[in-house]
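Dear colleagues,

As part of the handover before I leave the project, I'm documenting each prediction I ran so the next person doesn't have to rerun anything. This entry is a single chain, and its sequence is reproduced below.
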Amino acid sequence: MTQTGSPIRVAVVDDQPLIRAGFSMVLAGQDDIEVVGEAENGARALDLLREVEADVVIMDIRMPVMDGIQATEQLMRLDDPPGVLVLTTFDNDEDAFAALRSGAGGFLLKNAPAADIVHAIRVLAAGESVVAPRITRLLLDRVSDRLAPASGQAERLDVLTGRERDVLALVARGLSNTEIAADLYVAQATVKTHLGNLMAKLHLRDRAQAVAFAYESGLVRPSP
């Protein structure tokens, strides 16, 4: 999380020089954002982040040497990891879902408007996650036939209350907090409380990992 008044430090990781340059150019026009470095693959990104501090990393998925999924997993092991905004074209659905599980706090399509990417960076820098419900729905539509419960995950559901399970299931279906509140006839603040409690109990970082866990635990099954 950035300090109040300080610019948001961003590192751009993509194997295509023109894309890196494009992101850097867009971000350079923002008064509250500073690009602190670029890297062409995940391994170089890890090297870069040993030399400079970044609040947010824009991470491509498919790169040589080390892909964005591996790099994100390693970044999440740091004591104070940066927010990771994963961008994908959905060329490979399995990679897309793996990126969601890796701990990335933001997940957007690579052709998202520049304003959406800038907004996501600001939200991640504030310590929140960005997986818009419409993106969640699109992702799950594309990968649903590949999702299956993972061994040992179902037992972890035992720590949740019935209402926490309800909230988790609706999050996994791509509903926003507002939609969940309407569905369960409760206040949005109540939904936020249940969501915070269940993520703490399950040791989940953010909404993206909550979605992944709901499917891996078998709480939610892919639609036909």
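The beta strands are 8-13, 33-39, 56-60, 83-88, 106-109. The two ends are 40 Å apart (CA to CA).

All the best with the project,
I.
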